[in-house]
Structure formats: structure tokens, C-alpha cells
Specification:
Layout lengths: L9 E7 L2 E9 L5 E8 L5 H17 L6 H13 L5 H19 L9 H13 L11 H15 L2
Antiparallel strand pairs: 1-2, 2-3
Helix pairs in contact: 2-3, 4-5
């Protein structure tokens, strides 16, 4: 599942059959390149061709809403990181993400995660009692959560 991106597409003038035509180029939801001839340069204005291009990419951009944190972490982030992690790193990180990040933030959209919200969440995690010891979570856990969030938010 590639991360959805907003796109403008590309409007080009190409010669087809001896005539100059406006051609629209864009990528569909699966990332495949799409191509459509819009019309003759001599019979339409560039602004009309640009409007047609915008109409073509509009459905793709509507689907380019930002994903839930849980969808992105499970579908993109972990799939990519598992290739590089040792088994011990994988098991501890996945457990930490599931227990803390996905449990608390999994139903939020990635665009909702702002600096002030993340800072407040990390402070809350630092004060929250650990389920095993009953004492506040360790500095190490909070530091690892911060470390885990950075690549999730900035990819």
C-alpha cells in the first residue's frame, strides 16, 4: 500500500498523426502511469486542457486522504522496517508499537498528529503507571516511543 500523494498530473503537447494535441499524463491509485489525449491544440485553449487534466486527477486526489496511524504502521512502516531489523529488534519494537502507539493513536489520521499533541502524549506516557511495576513508565520507554514516532511521522 503506497502512501497516497496529491498530484497535479502533467499536460504536454505532442504530435499525433501529424497534428499537435494536448496530452494528459498522471498516475492512478496503484501508481501506474496513465495517458489520455485531451484535444487538438488548434481547437482548444490551454486553460480548457488544464481544467480537463484537473478533472481527470480529481478522483485520485479525493482518495489521497491521509491514512489512519494503524493502517500506515501495519501496511507500510512495519513492512519496510522488517526487512532491516534483527529478530530481537522486530519483536520488541512491534510489541511497543502495538501496546502504546497503536492502542492510543491507532484510530487517528496521520495529519492529526501535531507536535503539541505528540509532546502531550509523551508526557502522559512518562507519568502513566507501568502495568507490570505500578511505577511510572521509564525514561527509556518514552525515549523509544519518541524514536519510533519520528520515522512514522516524517516518511
Amino acid at each position: 500500500m503506497p502512501r497516497p500523494r496529491h498530484q497535479k498530473g502533467s499536460l504536454q503537447i505532442r504530435k499525433q498523426g501529424g497534428q499537435r494535441k494536448y496530452v494528459a499524463l498522471w498516475r492512478d491509485a496503484q501508481g501506474e502511469r496513465q495517458f489520455k489525449t485531451i484535444g487538438l491544440v488548434s481547437r482548444m485553449k490551454k486553460s480548457s486542457a488544464e481544467e480537463e487534466l484537473a478533472r481527470l486527477v480529481a478522483p485520485i486526489n479525493e482518495r489521497a486522504i491521509d491514512p489512519l496511524v494503524s493502517d500506515f504502521v501495519n501496511g507500510v512502516y512495519l513492512a519496510f522496517c522488517r526487512e532491516n531489523w534483527k529478530e530481537s529488534t522486530r519483536s520488541t519494537t512491534e510489541q511497543r508499537l502495538a501496546t502504546h502507539v497503536l492502542a492510543d493513536l491507532g484510530t487517528r489520521r496521520i495529519s492529526e498528529l501535531r507536535r503539541d499533541l505528540m509532546q502531550a502524549w509523551l508526557k502522559l506516557k512518562a507519568l502513566e503507571p507501568n502495568s507490570h511495576t505500578g511505577r511510572a513508565n521509564s525514561h527509556s520507554l518514552v525515549a523509544h516511543l519518541r524514536w519510533d514516532l519520528k520515522p512514522i511521522l516524517f516518511t
